[in-house]
UniProtKB/TrEMBL annotation:
Domain of life: Eukaryota
Record keyword RNA-binding present: no
GO molecular function list: Rho GDP-dissociation inhibitor activity
Keyword Ubl conjugation on entry: no
Signal peptide: none
Keyword terms, alphabetized: Cytoplasm
GO biological process: Rho protein signal transduction
Protein name as catalogued: Rho GDP-dissociation inhibitor
Xref: Pfam families: Rho_GDI (PF02115)
Described purpose of this protein according to its UniProt entry: Regulates the GDP/GTP exchange reaction of the Rho proteins by inhibiting the dissociation of GDP from them, and the subsequent binding of GTP to them.
Gene3D superfamilies registered for this protein in UniProt: Coagulation Factor XIII, subunit A, domain 1
Gene Ontology CC entries for this record: cytosol; membrane
Species of provenance: Cristinia sonorae
Main location per the UniProt record: cytoplasm
Length: 202
């Protein structure tokens, strides 16, 4: 990915006075407050079980698999999906933008996999520009995760939104930079794509 001078646009929202705790290993989390039943249930939901050995750490901690746009108005119940793991497909989307129907409700979903350890405060961010001017910024918290107990990917659905409408909205192409990162500032994915608005889906 190319370097960008506008890194400040991706500064995550922070709560004044909140300090991120020191990172802990899976074993440390497993033994932390072992007598607390509600905490034990939360840890189990992250795949942290007492006495469980951590999988050897190799490769990226989090792999972002895909970003999808879903809408009941899309023909045939399809979704618009980008494979984040395919650089050629992402490059093609920047040159040949998605077409999104104006004035419809849609929601975004991210599919990702935790490969090892515990990641806290994972979030999705995107900055949308048209003609080089920022027109929108989205920040969605995905949450904290450990390796899925069944080794599967996680799917996070965002709250529904409505696409802009009107002649002004339909003029030009919107350029998007997307990023998935965590509370510690680790960036797991960073990619660019484009979309345009039209009267109908294409």
């Amino acid at each position: 990915m190319s370097a960008h001078p506008d890194e400040d646009e991706f500064a995550p929202t922070t709560t004044p006075g909140y300090k991120i705790g020191a990172a802990k290993s899976v074993e440390e989390y497993a033994n932390l407050d072992a007598e607390d039943e509600s905490l034990a249930r939360w840890k189990a939901s992250l795949g942290i079980l007492p006495g469980a050995a951590a999988a050897p750490a190799s490769g990226p901690q989090v792999t972002v698999i895909s970003l999808e746009l879903a809408s009941d108005t899309l023909p045939g119940g399809k979704t618009l999906m980008m494979n984040v793991q395919d650089p050629a497909a992402i490059a093609a989307l920047k040159k040949n933008p998605f077409t999104i129907k104006e004035g419809v409700e849609y929601n975004v979903r991210v599919t990702f996999k935790v490969n090892h350890g515990i990641c806290s405060g994972v979030r999705y961010m995107q900055v949308v520009k048209r003609s080089g001017i920022k027109v929108d910024k989205m920040e969605q918290m995905l949450g904290s995760y450990g390796v899925h107990p069944k080794g599967e990917a996680y799917v996070k659905n965002f709250e529904p939104e409505e696409s802009p409408s009107g002649m002004l909205a339909r003029s030009g192409t919107y350029n998007v930079r997307s990023r998935v990162l965590d509370d510690d500032g680790h960036v797991y994915a960073d990619w660019e794509w484009s979309f345009k608005l039209a009267k109908e889906w294409e």
